[in-house]
Amino acid sequence: MRTPHDLELARLTKRYGDTVAVDGIDHVFAPGSYVCLLGPSGCGKSSTLRMVAGHESVTEGAIRLNGRDISALPPAKRGTAMMFQNYALFPHLSVKDNVAFSLRMKGIGKADRHARAMKLLELVDMAHLSERLPTQLSGGQQQRVALARALISEPEVLLLDEPLSALDPFLRVRMRGELKRLQRELGITFLHVTHGQDEALALADEVVVMNNAVIEQAGPAREVFNAPKTEFVARFMGGHNVVTLNGARHAIRSDAVRIGPDGLPATVSAVEYQGDRVAVTTNVQGQEPIIAVMSDAAFYATDINPGAHVRLSWDEGRLHRLRA
Ligand SMILES: Nc1ncnc2c1ncn2[C@@H]1O[C@H](COP(=O)(O)OP(=O)(O)OP(=O)(O)O)[C@@H](O)[C@H]1O
């Protein structure tokens, strides 16, 4: 549903000299949604985010928020705020003063700005460390402070550029949950750039997949994963095989490929144990290798080994025809 509070990109284009980083993209982001902008390195995601934030000029096109064109406004006047990958905290300021910084720039009195900073520090569970310096904090704690600092201007859209990439895998999963909780509590739009498929699937209400400066596919996370429209999306999201049937390309999820008594003859080339499941790679004449994923219990009930001759099948309904 479209409302006046949408963030809208209209024919948005960014060129750096001869390089087209963003090529006339159109998109409407629903208000209050968690959006992940996903794609390989160099596809144009950061340029898109930086244009929305106002840290990069727009070459052509427009960015509208609440129906007004914000593309020429300075960052602080847009209704957006950005959280950077490296957090960019001021090392000489306490946690509380870091969070209150933009209010100080606006001339808001000390008592007032500290009160507002403490409220946000409570929101991110950092109020007890408000007097510390950034160097006295862990990576995860610094990130919470950076979040509080970005949120103090009460943005309608929070922009996050690879916010979890500096964290170790354990903390990354924990902070992922925190970001989602925060977004729900605040009810504002989060636009989060990542090149991690798992991260996007775990977080996003809407996944926007970019490739070569354009949007390849956008939709609910489950839809983009289950029904990729292009070969690029099928391969990039992972978990799919691309097969050629009657001259047309189709995607089929690896866990929808059955190994059984009937179907396409195949030879097992590799078996990979993945903890709770096992990926069996097979060679089929006239196809690229096809991977079948099964539960470890199902796998160990068979005697499949590299070199085994097997047969592959799937339900027709699980095939998704790909755009040429
Ligand atoms: N300041 C710049 N000057 C010239 N070219 C640039 C500049 N910034 C980005 N580019 C180019 O624009 C294209 C898109 O870059 P962008 O940073 O938007 O991609 P990205 O998808 O965010 O990549 P990554 O995941 O590696 O950050 C790339 O080809 C990049 O080399």
Q: Give me the CATH fold name of the largest domain.
A: Rossmann fold
Major beta-sheet overview:
6 strands, mixed
Helix share, percent: 25-40%
Total DSSP helices: 9
Please give the radius of gyration in angstroms: 23 Å
Output the strand order for the largest sheet.
6-7-8-3-9-10
Q: Report the β-strand fraction as a percent range.
A: 25-35%
- Element pattern in H and E: EEEHEEEHHHEHEHEEHHEEEEEEHEE
- How many E strands? 18
Give the rounded overall mean pLDDT: 93
Secondary structure category: alpha+beta
Shape: elongated
The low-confidence parts are none
Q: Quick one: CATH class of the largest domain?
A: Alpha Beta
Compounds present?
adenosine-5'-triphosphate
InterPro entries: AAA+_ATPase, ABC_SmlMolc_Importer, ABC_transporter-like_ATP-bd, ABC_transporter-like_CS, Mo/tungstate-bd_C_term_dom, P-loop_NTPase, Transp-assoc_OB_typ2
GO molecular function: ATP binding; ATP hydrolysis activity; transmembrane transporter activity
Protein name: ATP-binding cassette domain-containing protein
Pfam families: ABC_tran (PF00005), TOBE_2 (PF08402)
